[in-house]
Design a protein that fits this description.
Layout (H helix, E strand, L loop, with lengths): L2 E6 L4 H10 L5 E8 L11 E4 L6 H9 L3 E4 L12 H21 L5 E7 L26 H19 L4 E7 L1 E3 L6 H6 L4 E4 L5 E2 L1 E3 H11 L11 E5 L5 E2 H8 L3 E4 L1 H14 L6 H9 L6 H5 L9 H12 L6 H13 L14 H17 L2
Helix pairs in contact: 1-6, 2-3, 3-4, 7-12
């Protein structure tokens, strides 16, 4: 008999794509797609089970269908239509606790894969140029999705200690982009004008939706030919992009403003429902984040099909042209960056010059040491 795979969070596009992909694997006999709400997309030949993982009933699902592989994708930073931040946090944290409790009691579960995020590292002014899987954050996230992921990983580590017979794989994804991406960062890049923090040009990494699905599929497999699919792994496309490079390729102008103004604007956009401009996203767009992916390549044996730049290019194509031609945006961004108040080389310097100098030094260091 083949494997019975249970997947959570299938009402989201990425969960649906993974379900359709994993059921084509020859070693998989059955796929159980679980979510609290029915998906709007098709799930192929998978069996959809409407169940809330925050409820103890999820244990009955595992027992009744003798599930041996659980892929937990219902850890996310955005709510489905009609949802709230409170419900998202409950699903992320309480839902994970219930699911892990059910897995702990199940004698048939042998593999657990958890979709996590590089948000666990946070974004702070004195962060290292590159985070490895063992690098502790300079400051723990104080709220939002980043705090949820820290709590989720803590519960997963506890489960791994209690059930050493279960292979546990935690995948820390960089920002996932692609034609169907619905993340907060995708919403930000879809704005006609991009508000940015004056004096900062953060480094960003992306992973393509197709690569995310493929690495989840790989992690859900039993180890083959000595490949280890257990542990914690950073997942990101090769390379990095500056926020200014992203705006140029999008053809969307930026509006550099002081940090308090960005925070206020983010609250206004969040209230209007235009974009989930959370404090953690503002920190990312201020200080950036880059992670090492050596363990992904050498230990898991996974090499992304798309680089960070190629992932962003595919996202740009799906969003259509911006307000201005990219070349015009590039000229404008360069002129703003050269102004004294923006920390450029104009006469007299500026209050943000040191921030830009430090950012440039960090970028150079990252280019030399990043994988």
């Amino acid at each position: 008999m083949g494997k019975v795979v249970l997947v959570t969070g299938v009402a989201r596009q990425l969960g649906g794509r993974f379900v359709r992909r994993v059921q084509r694997d020859p070693g998989v006999e059955r796929v159980l797609a679980v979510d609290a709400v029915p998906p709007e997309h098709h799930l192929g030949g998978a069996d959809f089970i409407q169940a809330d993982i925050r409820q103890p009933a999820i244990a009955k699902v595992l027992a009744e269908h003798r599930v041996d592989t659980v892929v937990h994708m219902d850890v996310t930073g955005t709510a489905l239509a009609g949802g709230s931040r409170g419900s998202v946090k409950e699903t992320n944290v309480i839902g994970t606790m219930q699911l892990l409790g059910a897995c702990q009691k199940s004698p048939t579960v042998k593999r657990l894969v958890v979709k996590s995020s590089t948000n666990v590292y946070g974004s702070a002014p004195r962060d290292p140029a590159v985070f490895t899987e063992t690098t502790p954050p300079k400051s723990l996230p104080s709220g939002g999705f980043a705090k949820d992921t820290v709590e989720v990983e803590g519960y997963v580590r506890g489960f791994a200690r209690r059930r050493p017979d279960v292979a546990v794989c935690v995948l820390r994804f960089a920002n996932i982009l692609g034609p169907t991406a619905d993340s907060p960062l995708a919403q930000y890049f879809s704005l006609p004008v991009l508000p940015t923090v004056l004096g900062y040009d953060p480094r960003l990494q992306f992973v393509h939706e197709e690569d995310a699905v493929e690495v989840l599929r790989l992690a859900s497999h039993d180890p083959e030919r000595g490949t280890l699919n257990s542990g914690t792994f950073n997942i990101a496309g090769d390379g990095q992009l500056l926020l200014s490079q992203c705006s140029r390729r999008l053809g969307r102008p930026t509006v550099p403003v002081f940090l308090p103004t960005v925070t206020w604007a983010g609250s206004a956009l969040r209230t209007l429902g235009v974009s989930d401009f959370s404090p953690e996203q503002i920190r990312l767009l201020t200080h950036g984040r880059v992670v090492a992916t050596r363990q992904m390549r050498e230990t898991m044996g996974f090499r992304p099909k798309y680089t960070t730049a190629e992932t962003f290019a595919d996202f740009v194509r799906s969003r259509g042209p911006g307000l201005l031609p990219p070349r015009v945006v590039a000229d404008v961004v360069d002129r703003i960056a050269a102004l004294p108040f923006a920390g450029g080389r104009g006469t007299g310097g500026g209050v943000d010059g040191s921030a830009n100098t430090q950012q440039g030094a960090t970028t150079r260091g990252a280019n030399q040491s990043a994988d």
